[in-house]
Specification:
alpha/beta; 27% strand; 7-stranded mixed beta sheet; binds zinc ion; Metallo-beta-lactamase, Chain A
């Protein structure tokens, strides 16, 4: 083999010169990245499919993009509250993105003329980009229009399997013991956990959640959007590291490369 090496190198050089398609092919890198848009909104892109979770952009003081600037192929909704449903209808109407949501919320949005897929807690389903499973979330779900409250079923979290990576978006939730089960059943690469308190877990409970889930990296969300949910995400990440866990604070607009 040692004798053949110069010829092999020469062959690779020549093929790259005369058949550039080979080099082009070599440069096709499958990159999976996550982008934080403030509050509970994240984009996940693999270069072909673009997922956006809870696209609350208009009225979100932390949002780094506007609703008309995002072009998702799929929109994942955890529940119907305005700070999660956000601009989903407008974005879906413009881009024809498929909305994935808990059953009643999906039905409600379907009646508005957008494409939806209705799922429910515990159920999983394969999509072109990978697999989605809905997890429980201890919260509520409604669309509130003035004095009218339209209930939109149960809220949820998401397990997203894409390119052999598993990402857990907890949705809006309090701490619950079955996070242990979620962590035991899935090797989580990333956990996105609310820390804002008042409506969702505070940082102390989120720390226990992170321990139960055992994700390779935990990213805090759902904080600082409004004065009521101000938190110190760096202190949260420090406390994670004291428990031997890795955390990462993302600023709105910041990308996190999951896989390159
Ligand atoms: Zn919320």
């Amino acid at each position: 083999m040692g004798l053949l090496l110069p010829f092999y190198c020469c062959y690779l050089y020549l093929t790259s010169q005369y058949f550039p398609i080979i080099m082009w092919h070599k440069e096709v890198v499958i990159m999976l990245k996550l982008i934080f848009h403030g509050h509970a909104c994240f984009s996940i892109t693999d270069g072909t499919y673009n997922l956006i979770i809870d696209p609350f952009l208009k009225g979100n003081p932390l949002a780094d993009v506007q609703a008309q600037e995002v072009n998702p192929t799929h929109i994942l909704l955890t529940h119907g509250h305005a700070d999660h449903l956000g601009d989903a209808l407008e974005i879906a109407a413009r881009t024809a993105a498929l909305i994935i949501a808990p059953n009643e919320l999906a039905l409600y949005l379907g009646h508005k003329g957008v494409k939806t897929v209705a799922m429910h807690i515990g159920g999983s389903r394969r999509f072109p980009f990978g697999r989605i499973k809905l997890t429980p979330a201890w919260h509520s779900s409604a669309i509130i229009q003035g004095q009218e409250i339209i209930y939109t079923g149960a809220p949820c979290g998401y397990l997203i399997e894409i390119q052999d990576e598993t990402i857990y978006h907890a949705g809006d939730t309090g701490l619950f013991g079955d996070m242990q089960l979620i962590g035991a059943r899935s090797q989580l690469d990333l956990a996105l956990l609310p820390i804002g308190d008042n409506y969702v877990m505070g940082p102390e409970d989120a720390l226990i959640a992170a321990e139960m889930l055992g994700a390779k990296v935990t990213i805090p969300m759902h904080y600082d959007t409004f004065p009521l949910i101000e938190q110190d995400p760096y202190l949260f990440v420090d406390n994670l590291s004291k428990k031997g866990l890795k955390g990462q604070v993302l600023k709105p607009g910041q990308e996190y490369v999951i896989k390159d």
